[in-house]
Amino acid sequence: xxxxxxxxxxxxxxxxxxxxxxxxxxxxxxxxxxxxxxxxxxxxxxxxxxxxxxxxxxxxxxxxxxxxxxxxxxxxxxxxxxxxxxxxxxxxxxxxxxxxxxxxxxxxxxxxxxxxxxxxxxxxxxxxxxxxxxxxxxxxxxxxxxxxxxxxxxxxxxxxxxxxxxxxxxxxxxxxxxxxxxxxxxxxxxxxxxxxxxxxxxxxxxxxxxxxxxxxxxxxxxxxxxxxxxxxxxxxxxxxxxxxxxxxxxxxxxxxxxxxxxxxxxxxxxxxxxxxxxxxxxxxxxxxxxxxxxxxxxxxxxxxxxxxxxxxxxxxxxxxxxxxxxxxxxxxxxxxxxxxxxxxxxxxxxxxxxxxxxxxxxxxxxxxxxxxxxxxxxxxxx
Length: 382
Prior knowledge:
The protein has helices at about 1-20, 40, 95-105, 135-140, 145-150, 155-170, 190-205, 235, 240, 265-280; strands at about 30-35, 60, 75, 110-120, 175-180, 215-220, 245-250, 310-315, 320-325, 325-335, 340-345, 350-355, 365-370, 375-380.
């Protein structure tokens, strides 16, 4: 009797094991992201903690340049320096570092994330346009930029596509395009149109669908950090009006380096985390954003004649106005309708106004006059 009972238990165990082995196990996801831009995508963020150098082996970088620590087309753990080793220090942070880490935290333990990063300091967006880049390369007069472009065999876009196709052939799925560019040329509608052209080329060349590959565009260092290229943000903030699957990533409160152009290490951490949160939210993950990620140009309106950003900087009580076009003047109006002052802009795109004399006004209405006669209205709160 005991032997029969034992045999029955053995048979049942084999049946259960057979059933379990027949159940389909989840396939690991291999998710890759493309990243392009200029110096803030290259990144010069200082490494200030051990945490910055501890990277999961499931977060990878497909090398886009040659160096003593990498070869083009070889996979490496995505330790800082994902674009290329820096001129200022061998390892540095860029937006992709904490983007990849943050995305990975919300995926299954069997999933992996990779970045393919191609960026050139100071370059215009057209350097990534496969039909226009050669004209820029031929006319470039800066030796340092020529050297950076040469690291991609003279064609950064071509290198990006070659590596992306390699990743696809190795089982990776392209799931997003990260951009940090615009300090050089994001000052009018030509810029989002060019971004769209490049995006469409990428979708076609890699056989991708727009709904599967959102575009995430980071703002330049903003007026809140005295950014020297903050007047690019009104244009960058309009990207969703040109590309339905494109979204702006705020740079508000991202700590800046001493040049007021590049982010500091902690700034890149916050910015990269915001890129990740947006991607996760777009893909159905319940992730709260607690990083104060309001856009620099919160009140943008597709019907406006031009893009403009305006807010009061708390530390010195200065009204900051930055537009994508040359400005003629700014009317400061009380909420009751009384004109308090008119400030001449003299063709500048950025205007700084001391609003201390209007301390009793909780809200100010601005009539912002462009040099071409168009007017945009904004309300700012203290």
